[in-house]
Amino acid sequence: METQELLWRLTDRYAPAPPARSVATRPTWFDHAGDLVVLNSPITWETPWRTEGGFAHDLPPGSHPVHVGSTPHTPDGEDPDASWLTVTLVVIPLAEPSRIAAANWDVPGYHDVHLIEDYAVLWGEEAMRASLPHDEDGTPSFVRDAPNEIRARGPRHRRDNWTNVVLDRETGANAFVLPVHHAEYLTGYEITDDRDDLICLVLAACE
Asked: Is-above-0.90 flag for pTM?
């Protein structure tokens, strides 16, 4: 099984097309946004000043591919024919696609509300600590700068509508800032093997 086939099978399970009911919006495309460098701490996807901590996931140390599912989005006041995007699914596979496909996907999502707004940051604790100090409102400077960087690239540049920032040059700890316009909260699913080892993480932005 190829990665793209796995991504769309995961989408059919966790963000199915109407008339099926889903809390997540089905993406139109998937792109490999880059790799997330994980050290020795959990990772989370959050809007730092809004979420007040997030749902933590223990990924093994290493560099893990981040696949972003997105759909067209038109910001207020912009040309309605311009193709910007908003991210609806993030998939981080930790094993080969065939192994993930054979696992049990019947896993519950989060049981409480994980609020987000406009932009959400995917990062580990090492990257968070490397970004300190934050502004008085709790906004890391790289997150505050991300919207202008993204907008400067213009619409129709799907693979560039997020930022990937290295926050610790020594370790490579990095963070992705992903647009999540219209989403109000996140849910997520940990797919494990028969030994309860995490082999795939699926995060969804929900309206």
From this structure: yes
